[in-house]
Amino acid sequence: MSIAKYINPDLVKERKNATFDVDEFAAWIYGDANLVQMKRLVEEELYQDLDDPLDLDYLSYEDVYNRAVKHSVDAAKKLRALQERLHPGGNEIYPTFMSGPVGMALIPAGTPMAVHGLMFTRAFRGQGTPEQYEKFGRRADNCEILGTYAQTELGHGTYLRGLETRADYDRKTDEFVLNTPTLTSYKWWPGGLGQSVNYCIVVAQLYIDNEPLGVQLFVLQVRDEQTHAPLPGIDIGDIGKKIGMQGVNNGYLGLKNVRIPRMNMLMKNAKVLPDGTFVKSPVSQLAYFPMVYVRCMVVLGNSILHAAAATITTRYSAVRRQSPINPDGPEPQVLDHLTQQMKVVPEIATAIAYRIAGGKLYKLFEQTSKDVNRGDYSRLPELHALACTLKASCTYDSAFGIERLRLSCGGHGYLASANLGNLFTSATAACTYEGENSVLYLQVGRILLKTWAEVLAGKQLMPTMTYLSECANWSKFPQWSDDWKCLAQALQYTATNKTRIAFKSYNERLKRGMPQPEAVNATGIELTQAAELHGRAFVTNNFFEEVTGPKAAKRSTSLNKVLEDLLELYLVHTVQRHMADVLRFIPLTDDHLTSLQTRLEAVLARLRPNAVTICDGFDFHDKVLSSVLGCYDGNVYERIFKAAKKSPLNQKAVPASYEQHLKPFMKSNL
């Protein structure tokens, strides 16, 4: 029987019983039906000649990297050709697809060129002068040079002011002298830095006459463009094997008296003049703008990883049969067990909630970028705060959600061929890069302290924080009801009061004479809790507005009903997750709590018939999921067995270790 042509009857039944149109759902989640169709056409063209990603599991570390380089180059060529055919002269498809689901299929081990497209090329457009773009950026866009973004050091990560790499200006030669003076100042982790790139943007402390002037961005060539050999004064290499993303070629970089021209400092904002005069940036945060962009992309990226894992697990749960509910009955689909629904379906809703929130965040980034280009920096603090909190909450929820989904697949979820392990390691890595989550929550906590002071002073707040003023004016929470607005407001009210208490604790410490930095540290637990709830309040309210707002009139009744059920599940589940905090500020009764539990069970029952088709609506190609458990046809056991047969250990009937070790051992009469 051909695996490809036969579809498991359980999945056929699931799709037949769905109450909504899967294509309409896909158009909603992607934002445009035409975009979905173009995506499908592109995938059919791109995925015709791909290697089996399972082969990577049996290669050496070096061979995985070499394969990732080949895949990256092949993908770049394919996407460039597609770009020129569909949008001649444009540059939208290539970088977007390299870092999205298409990239997951084309480059399954991860690409050492990811940071090149996400940060290196964008830095020239956002931080460089027109002259610098012409010199470096245009070549980078054409992949004539490959680069990365070298910020994190062996001894310092998120705390940028602690970076030790130095760039000292030499007036005599009109050059900067770059040094990593200690082992801990070595650049560590940049993707592609190991052996793949020949340029990088180095984030270093600027010194003029030995006076520190803050971190700035410098363009540095690290390898010869012809031979690829490291240049003088540069110690560079791969940092070693990680728990995932083996093809990314993360690297280290040491610098000893490496000289670069003055004009290699990106000077769209801050500047160093030939006489050594330093011209400050109009807003210091502009130096970190490339990192803010990546945080926005992380939210969208991790929501995709989360949705992919949910798709795999949901399809498997519909095919796997186990443990009769009635002792004398047949084995049901695992998805019929309420406990399995509780493991799986909330993760579907969470992935959707962050997909919507990530889209809202990205629109804010685009608008802020336009404002910055006009000299308007007013929304930078709001973008920074929202990007920090969503990056932290999304990566945390997706990492733990994917692990929960893996556990929901039982033993088969532990197979590398299930691909849940790769999805997990990609998701959990994002909890650390571009700002470790606890540190980001602390940054948001400090912003909330400042915002609460503005609430007390009656000042106007940034739009995404106006609810703090509204809730602060309530003497108590309004009458509890079962509607969605009540649940969304409950989270806003809880976040508001957690902020109020953190502010009170912080100020009490100041009154006792504790220095301000120590007071912030001592209030850290309360600040991070307030920041997390602020993020949850945004995501839930944003989901609520998407489902109930004006856009609903443009959707069919059947799709709206499914989206309403997903909203109901997400709101009830999120309130229950934070019930300890909610009960601190809202006097719910036992009847209220019982009602929430009843609602949870009821909405799980309503979503159960639609779970598989909702995941179909994510529109993941089998090549993207790359999972024996999650293919569209549901032929799980055939694919598991076929993957097992590919193991190198199964290519010989008797392994070499038998004659070398096992046979002598068993004959030794130990």
In short:
The chain is an alpha+beta fold.
Say how many strands there are.
Answer: 11
Considering the protein shown, what is the CATH homologous superfamily of the largest domain? Answer: Butyryl-CoA Dehydrogenase, subunit A, domain 3
Q: Tell me the number of structural domains.
A: 3
Give the proportion of residues in helices: 40-55%
User: Remind me, CATH topology of the largest domain?
Assistant: Butyryl-CoA Dehydrogenase, subunit A, domain 3
Shape: globular
Number of helices: 24
For the residues shown, what is the average pLDDT? 94
Distance between the termini: 48 Å
CATH architecture of the largest domain: Up-down Bundle
C-alpha Rg, in Å? 27 Å
- Top-tier CATH class of the largest domain: Mainly Alpha
Largest sheet: 6 strands, mixed
- Ranges where pLDDT stays below 50 over 5 or more residues in a row are none
What structural class do you assign from the helix and strand content? alpha+beta
Q: Strand-residue fraction?
A: 5-15%
General description of the model:
By secondary structure, the chain is α+β, with helices and mostly antiparallel strands. The chain has three domains: 1-30 and 288-639, Butyryl-CoA Dehydrogenase, subunit A, domain 3 (Up-down Bundle), CATH 1.20.140; 32-111, no CATH class; 145-281, Butyryl-CoA Dehydrogenase, subunit A, domain 2, CATH 2.40.110.10. The chain is built from 24 helices and eleven strands. The protein has helices at 9-16, 22-30, 33-46, 61-86, 93-98, 101-106, 114-127, 130-141, 289-319, 338-373, 380-407, 420-429, 437-456, 466-472, 484-511, 516-522, 524-548, 557-577, 579-585, 590-607, 611-617, 622-625, 636-645, 656-666; strands at residues 147-150, 166-170, 175-179, 187-188, 199-208, 211-221, 234-238, 251-255, 258-261, 271-272, 278-279. Strands 1, 2, 3, 5, 6 and 9 form a six-stranded mixed sheet that branches. A three-stranded antiparallel sheet has the order 4-8-7, with no helix packed on it. α11 (380-407) crosses α17 and α13 (437-456) crosses α15. The longest helix is centred in the middle third of the chain and has 36 residues, at 338-373. 46% of the residues are buried. The mean pLDDT is 94.
